[in-house]
Amino acid sequence: MPPRSSITNLPDDLRAAFNAKLVANAFSDYQGLADWLNGELESRGMELRVSRSAAHRHGQEFEGKLEKMRIATEQAKAVASGSEDDEGAMNEALIRLVQTKTFDALMAMGDGAEDGKNLGKLGVMIARLVRASVTQKQWAADAKKKIKEKLDSLESVTEAGGVKAFDPDTLRRVREEIYGVYE
Q1: Is the pTM of this model over 0.70?
Q2: Number of domains in the chain
Protein backbone atom coordinates (compact mmCIF):
# COMPACT_ATOMS: atom_id res chain seq x y z
CA MET A 1 0.00 0.00 0.00
CA PRO A 2 1.51 3.35 -1.00
CA PRO A 3 2.13 5.98 1.68
CA ARG A 4 -0.58 8.54 2.34
CA SER A 5 -0.36 11.82 0.50
CA SER A 6 1.30 14.61 2.45
CA ILE A 7 -1.76 16.74 1.63
CA THR A 8 -3.98 14.22 3.44
CA ASN A 9 -1.84 14.66 6.55
CA LEU A 10 -2.37 18.44 6.66
CA PRO A 11 -4.50 19.99 9.40
CA ASP A 12 -8.07 20.54 8.14
CA ASP A 13 -7.87 24.34 8.20
CA LEU A 14 -4.61 24.36 6.24
CA ARG A 15 -5.94 21.87 3.68
CA ALA A 16 -9.05 24.05 3.23
CA ALA A 17 -6.87 27.14 2.73
CA PHE A 18 -4.72 25.22 0.24
CA ASN A 19 -7.82 24.13 -1.69
CA ALA A 20 -9.06 27.72 -1.78
CA LYS A 21 -5.69 28.86 -3.14
CA LEU A 22 -5.81 26.11 -5.77
CA VAL A 23 -9.12 27.48 -7.03
CA ALA A 24 -7.94 31.11 -6.81
CA ASN A 25 -4.80 30.23 -8.82
CA ALA A 26 -6.87 28.36 -11.43
CA PHE A 27 -5.04 25.13 -10.57
CA SER A 28 -1.65 26.46 -11.65
CA ASP A 29 1.70 27.50 -10.08
CA TYR A 30 2.02 24.32 -8.05
CA GLN A 31 5.59 25.18 -7.05
CA GLY A 32 4.41 28.51 -5.63
CA LEU A 33 1.56 26.79 -3.80
CA ALA A 34 3.89 24.12 -2.39
CA ASP A 35 6.29 26.85 -1.23
CA TRP A 36 3.44 28.75 0.45
CA LEU A 37 2.17 25.58 2.10
CA ASN A 38 5.64 24.61 3.34
CA GLY A 39 6.05 28.12 4.78
CA GLU A 40 2.76 27.71 6.65
CA LEU A 41 3.82 24.30 7.95
CA GLU A 42 7.17 25.69 9.09
CA SER A 43 5.52 28.64 10.86
CA ARG A 44 3.39 26.14 12.80
CA GLY A 45 6.47 24.18 13.78
CA MET A 46 5.44 21.11 11.80
CA GLU A 47 8.06 18.92 10.13
CA LEU A 48 5.76 17.82 7.31
CA ARG A 49 6.69 19.16 3.86
CA VAL A 50 4.76 19.07 0.59
CA SER A 51 6.42 18.59 -2.79
CA ARG A 52 5.33 20.25 -6.02
CA SER A 53 4.32 16.80 -7.30
CA ALA A 54 2.11 16.13 -4.27
CA ALA A 55 0.49 19.55 -4.68
CA HIS A 56 -0.07 18.82 -8.38
CA ARG A 57 -1.59 15.35 -7.76
CA HIS A 58 -3.93 16.78 -5.14
CA GLY A 59 -4.79 19.70 -7.41
CA GLN A 60 -5.72 17.40 -10.29
CA GLU A 61 -7.89 15.24 -8.04
CA PHE A 62 -9.54 18.27 -6.44
CA GLU A 63 -10.17 19.91 -9.83
CA GLY A 64 -11.77 16.66 -11.05
CA LYS A 65 -14.09 16.60 -8.04
CA LEU A 66 -15.06 20.24 -8.58
CA GLU A 67 -15.78 19.51 -12.26
CA LYS A 68 -18.03 16.59 -11.32
CA MET A 69 -19.88 18.82 -8.85
CA ARG A 70 -20.28 21.50 -11.54
CA ILE A 71 -21.70 18.95 -13.98
CA ALA A 72 -24.08 17.54 -11.34
CA THR A 73 -25.24 21.07 -10.52
CA GLU A 74 -25.87 21.83 -14.20
CA GLN A 75 -27.78 18.57 -14.59
CA ALA A 76 -29.93 19.35 -11.56
CA LYS A 77 -30.64 22.85 -12.91
CA ALA A 78 -31.57 21.38 -16.30
CA VAL A 79 -33.96 18.95 -14.64
CA ALA A 80 -35.46 21.76 -12.57
CA SER A 81 -35.95 24.12 -15.51
CA GLY A 82 -37.17 21.44 -17.90
CA SER A 83 -39.81 19.94 -15.66
CA GLU A 84 -43.10 21.24 -14.46
CA ASP A 85 -43.51 19.60 -11.11
CA ASP A 86 -46.37 17.29 -11.98
CA GLU A 87 -46.47 14.56 -9.36
CA GLY A 88 -43.03 15.63 -8.13
CA ALA A 89 -41.26 14.70 -11.36
CA MET A 90 -38.44 17.13 -10.61
CA ASN A 91 -37.83 15.68 -7.15
CA GLU A 92 -37.89 12.17 -8.58
CA ALA A 93 -35.34 13.13 -11.24
CA LEU A 94 -33.08 14.82 -8.69
CA ILE A 95 -33.26 11.78 -6.41
CA ARG A 96 -32.31 9.56 -9.34
CA LEU A 97 -29.40 11.86 -10.20
CA VAL A 98 -28.08 11.69 -6.63
CA GLN A 99 -28.58 7.91 -6.62
CA THR A 100 -26.46 7.66 -9.76
CA LYS A 101 -23.71 9.77 -8.23
CA THR A 102 -23.87 7.69 -5.03
CA PHE A 103 -23.51 4.50 -7.05
CA ASP A 104 -20.46 6.00 -8.78
CA ALA A 105 -18.95 6.80 -5.37
CA LEU A 106 -19.60 3.25 -4.17
CA MET A 107 -17.91 1.83 -7.24
CA ALA A 108 -14.89 4.08 -6.69
CA MET A 109 -14.65 2.89 -3.08
CA GLY A 110 -14.72 -0.71 -4.27
CA ASP A 111 -11.48 -0.08 -6.15
CA GLY A 112 -9.43 -0.17 -2.95
CA ALA A 113 -10.10 3.36 -1.75
CA GLU A 114 -12.23 2.08 1.13
CA ASP A 115 -12.40 4.31 4.14
CA GLY A 116 -14.62 3.24 7.03
CA LYS A 117 -15.63 6.81 7.90
CA ASN A 118 -16.62 7.63 4.32
CA LEU A 119 -18.41 4.30 3.92
CA GLY A 120 -20.47 5.08 7.02
CA LYS A 121 -21.37 8.52 5.68
CA LEU A 122 -22.30 6.97 2.35
CA GLY A 123 -24.54 4.45 4.15
CA VAL A 124 -26.37 7.27 5.94
CA MET A 125 -26.76 9.13 2.64
CA ILE A 126 -28.18 6.02 0.95
CA ALA A 127 -30.68 5.54 3.79
CA ARG A 128 -31.79 9.16 3.41
CA LEU A 129 -32.11 8.76 -0.35
CA VAL A 130 -34.25 5.66 0.04
CA ARG A 131 -36.44 7.46 2.57
CA ALA A 132 -36.76 10.48 0.26
CA SER A 133 -37.66 8.21 -2.66
CA VAL A 134 -40.33 6.40 -0.63
CA THR A 135 -41.71 9.72 0.62
CA GLN A 136 -41.76 11.07 -2.95
CA LYS A 137 -43.65 8.02 -4.23
CA GLN A 138 -46.13 8.25 -1.34
CA TRP A 139 -46.69 11.94 -2.08
CA ALA A 140 -47.34 11.15 -5.77
CA ALA A 141 -49.77 8.35 -4.85
CA ASP A 142 -51.61 10.63 -2.41
CA ALA A 143 -51.83 13.42 -5.01
CA LYS A 144 -53.20 10.99 -7.60
CA LYS A 145 -55.72 9.65 -5.07
CA LYS A 146 -56.96 13.16 -4.21
CA ILE A 147 -57.32 14.01 -7.90
CA LYS A 148 -59.23 10.78 -8.52
CA GLU A 149 -61.55 11.47 -5.58
CA LYS A 150 -62.23 15.00 -6.83
CA LEU A 151 -62.91 13.79 -10.37
CA ASP A 152 -65.17 10.99 -9.05
CA SER A 153 -67.07 13.61 -7.07
CA LEU A 154 -67.50 15.79 -10.15
CA GLU A 155 -68.65 12.78 -12.20
CA SER A 156 -71.21 11.74 -9.60
CA VAL A 157 -72.63 15.27 -9.51
CA THR A 158 -72.76 15.33 -13.32
CA GLU A 159 -74.37 11.88 -13.54
CA ALA A 160 -76.96 12.84 -10.94
CA GLY A 161 -78.01 15.70 -13.16
CA GLY A 162 -76.46 18.36 -10.98
CA VAL A 163 -73.90 20.59 -12.65
CA LYS A 164 -74.59 20.81 -16.38
CA ALA A 165 -71.24 22.43 -17.17
CA PHE A 166 -69.45 19.06 -17.11
CA ASP A 167 -69.94 16.46 -19.77
CA PRO A 168 -69.06 12.91 -18.55
CA ASP A 169 -66.89 12.31 -21.64
CA THR A 170 -65.00 15.54 -21.01
CA LEU A 171 -64.37 14.55 -17.39
CA ARG A 172 -63.16 11.11 -18.51
CA ARG A 173 -60.74 12.70 -20.98
CA VAL A 174 -59.46 15.14 -18.33
CA ARG A 175 -59.03 12.24 -15.92
CA GLU A 176 -57.08 10.10 -18.38
CA GLU A 177 -55.17 12.57 -20.54
CA ILE A 178 -54.28 15.27 -18.05
CA TYR A 179 -54.09 13.45 -14.74
CA GLY A 180 -53.27 9.93 -15.95
CA VAL A 181 -56.01 8.36 -13.81
CA TYR A 182 -57.61 5.45 -15.68
CA GLU A 183 -60.65 3.45 -14.65
Answers
A1: no
A2: 1
